[in-house]
Write a structure and sequence with these properties.
The complex is a heterodimer of chains A (about 550) and B (about 375). Chain A contains 22 helices and 12 strands. By secondary structure, chain A is of the alpha/beta class. Chain A folds into 2 domains: about 325 residues, Rossmann fold (3-Layer(aba) Sandwich), CATH 3.40.50.2000; about 190 residues, Glycogen Phosphorylase B (Rossmann fold, 3-Layer(aba) Sandwich). Chain A has a 6-stranded parallel β-sheet with strand order 3-2-1-4-5-6, sandwiched between helices. With about 375 residues, chain B is mostly helical. Chain B folds into 2 domains: about 60 residues, no CATH class; about 220 residues, no CATH class. Helix content of chain B is about 70%, strand content about 0%. Chain B has 16 helices and no strands. The chains are: A alpha/beta (about 550), B mainly alpha (about 375). At the A-B interface, helix 6, helix 8, helix 10 and helix 11 of A face helix 4, helix 5 and helix 12 of B. Chain A: This is D-inositol 3-phosphate glycosyltransferase. Chain A: One of its GO terms (molecular function) is glycosyltransferase activity. Chain A: Keywords: Transferase.
Chain lengths: ~550, ~375
Amino acid sequence: MRIGLLTEGGYPYVGGEGGLWCDRLVRGLDRHEFDVYAFSTDEAQEDAGWVPLPPRIGRVRTAPLWAAEDDGVVYGRRARRRFSEHYGELAAVLCAATDPAAPGPQPVPPEADRFATALRGLAELARDEGGLVAALRSETAVRALERACRAPGALRTAREARVPDLLAVAAHLERALRPLSLDWYEEDGLGAVDLCHAAAGGVTALPGLLAHHFFDIPLLVTEYGVRLRTHYLTRPDAPPAVRSLLAAFHGRLAAETYRRAAFITPGNTHARRWQERCGADRAKIRTVYPGMDAAPFAEAGESPERADPYTLVWVGRVEPAKDLVSLLHAFAEIREEEPRARLRIIGGPSGPEGAAYLGHCEALAAHLFPDEAEGPHSAGAGPVSFEEIGGPGPATPADAYASGAVVVLSSVVEGFPAGLVEAMLCGRATVSTDVGAVVEAIGGTGLVVPPRNPRAFAEACVSLLRDPERRVRLGAAARARALELFTVDQNISAFHGIYLEIVAHTPVRRLLLDDTGDPLPFAAPAESHVPGHWTDPASRAAPTWAMDTPVPATETTR
Amino acid sequence: MTDLGELDRSTPPGAADPVKALLHRHRDLCEQAVDPLEIAAGLEAHGITDRTAARFRHRDVFSLAEELYARVPRDDAPPRPAPATTSPRARGGWTVLTLLPGALCVATVAALRLTHGQTRLYAAAAGVLAVALALRAALRRGPLSARTDIPPRAATASWSCWLLGYALLGDGLLGTAVTGGPDGLPDGTAEGDWPLTVAPVVALALACAPAAWAAHLLAARVGRRLASSRGLEDFSASVRPVLIGVYVLFLGAVAALLTATSALLGEPPALPSTLALGGLLFLARLLTIHGFTHAPRVILAVTAIAQTTALATLFAARLPGCDALATPVQTLTTAWSPAALPTLTCGTAALILLIHASRTLARASAHIRPERPR
């Protein structure tokens, strides 16, 4: 099976986000052939080069999203009219005053259809004539936007759009629609794959959407963070007109992507709720948790006795969203109950903001917990220590987690808590705040308290510190849960299953032609529709229980 | 872990409407939001989850956000004032860089005056190289720099160099070619066998600074017009006079510089041809920095080819039987002067580009700024 993997700013670039996941996927599913279609986000990334690629990758095609390649095509009158028609339609849909993501089951709203038609019209124009980049920047585009904003029935915020707002929207749309101008939509490009797997939503999934339109290639969308939500959070200072038009664009693009996708795989329930909210059909959604490599944590997980019984450990990147201040205040209350307790904060700052926050936290810790010595002749030390992995303290994250009896997480904002899952893999009892996907990850195998509530946090920690047996029980349960749900193997096998299901439901039927160009009857035998390679006995899709040695059913009755 | 006890603690006794307190706390977010999903995203960023939303009698954050969106007063809110446009400030860096080509050009001319023979050749070569590098640096930064997302075209630069070369050597060559010369290579003086016209080139090199200032002025004015105009028609109508004004300003600066350099160097001021060439190059650069690379390239190429052809006809007429070829250029040169040819070609080209620029640069789409990647 040939899979077109669509990524943005991640695989195969060095240090791209989500690169590790894609790499594991490609290496794990080595029975399939992968073609990577990647967008790079900036020049530095392009210069940094690629990670070493496994041999199963057939081809890699990349396109920069940060630079426009103007092909110098100037539209004639007919092409210009075609462009103006489709772009005007797109602008009219964006300005129309309806909620793009009205909840609940409903028939396809006419706006969604208009949006899809306009998008497809622009894509076809780019494929037939080229020159879309220049056209999207042209006066025709800006005029179409202005007309749509001034039309009766437009959004209230859109009606207030001034010229700079129109220009900002036009520039953003030009950037967002750059994938339309790519030359990937050919018979030997995306037309040759059996399945498009988009590693993110939004603009990244746009080539998959077009491949679906041009060649009926099924589309699978994996989202660990919902693009629409990211979009809302990244431009808080733009004028209202710009924000409302762009929100409409991204909302409709997301809805259209979800509508066309064969399956949608959110990385956690939080992403899943956003997707449902944006119009994703529940029947298509399969939550696939991100996989973590369990091997480095195996040793720590097998030896719960290595933990110091009075040590709390916090591991992560230091930044304001982690709310270490609240943790320190909670620890002050813990110390009142358990004077022997110690807190290790392990992790470096992220960015200048994080560095400033770390300094603030260190000052607060020094203020709350003055150094104290055991006797009159020994040097004193505070109960709170700030360390970094690879420094004089722990060498690996596993060592960091293993040193504590309880692992704590005090964030106020969190996506999928990877650190918490690592702690679970180490078999440590955890206390965390109820944010993001924490409850979903931890299940019942750790204590969860409301965020910004030091007293509740302290009570939970003290109860665990005083009850070693409960700690061990919770830690073992957490490790079992993490090994069940959050390993690389489950992630890869889930995707493997989804791939097979998609291909079984929506196989790409290609018409094979003979030398003279006539269709060739019976060119594709029935066996070619069987998933996997039918001549290879080992790779036949068979349930694992059928492959194992049979267990005699009568043994229990003997 | 829903904690209703905590809710009771955080809301004052008798407060029957906990959402109101929340609305008050996130007032900015709710007032600026353009749809409920934006409020939902903002609330989640503040740590509000579905379990927190349950305390406000809501199923999830989305329905809570919808209530907040519906309840926030917005119709009577005055429209927010247009954000103050920050006009790009003049920076020290590019001001110095734009002065550099002129300074180096003056230094080269001084060196040519002071040296003789072989040394003069070396001085000329070094001077040309230095001026070219300085010009390149001046066009890389500041208001004359092209947009980063559009690849530069080498053709425009080489045609511009050709036109400048013609301004330096062409008039002399044309003058001598009409009378049967030239009998030797240029020797770097205005009196020799193939005289050089240095003053226009020095004036144009010095005009880099006014050109940058004019482009800066145009950008600042356009930015202000963008912020203040409500419609596209409105904007176009108000930008056209600004463009013409800036152009006239630049031409005035070139005329002043040329008069000064001609007086200093003791050459007759070739005002029309220099003004035409300066105006042409300025417009070509203006169009290029706004992303219109096609028209300048074509126009510059046509102008340069026209000048070359005119020169070539003079020499081709020396072949037996081809006398008639030289007639148009000879008539032109004798009726006016050798400078009539560049004046005519560059002037026509500049006029065409001016008409083109007044249409394209007056459009709002010419001033789309490339979006910063996020």
